[in-house]
Amino acid sequence: MFFESRGSLIVAAILIVAGCYQVFSSRSFAEAASREASAVGVITYVSGGRGSIYYFRFVADGRQRSGEGASCHTPLSNNGCGVGEPVRVYYDPAQIVETALQEYGERARGMLFVGVCFILAGLVVVVLHLIFSRMEKDSDGGDETYGGDCREDAPLHVTPDA
What we know:
Layout: H1 6-32, E1 37-47, E2 53-60, E3 63-69, E4 86-91, H2 104-140
């Protein structure tokens, strides 16, 4: 079974490492939330496939900038986040974190939630590995502490109490 194998521990380690990465990455967006600025931008291209990628352009500090994001939470028109539609773009004037079509605080909370879920999932896999490994060990009879003769025809020795 999967949870008895070392593969489950590898999966658990990957989940925990990915979760820690998400948690620590969320901190940079949480810190940038106090510095964030916003501008009106326009969607220039939407890439389809398994997940959409939104490419956008905006002007900040007199300079034209561009960016991309996997989600679009800030449409400014009733037509949503289609090509040519205006959107609210959030950026960090210090350029420490990437631009986004989502407030930095909201993004930080989302990343933190995903990170904590990954870490918890990894810990659950570790616990299941320990439980199933223990069950396998017990079913193999590897922990037998009785050293006597277990045959059915072995004589029973009874000694009276003194």
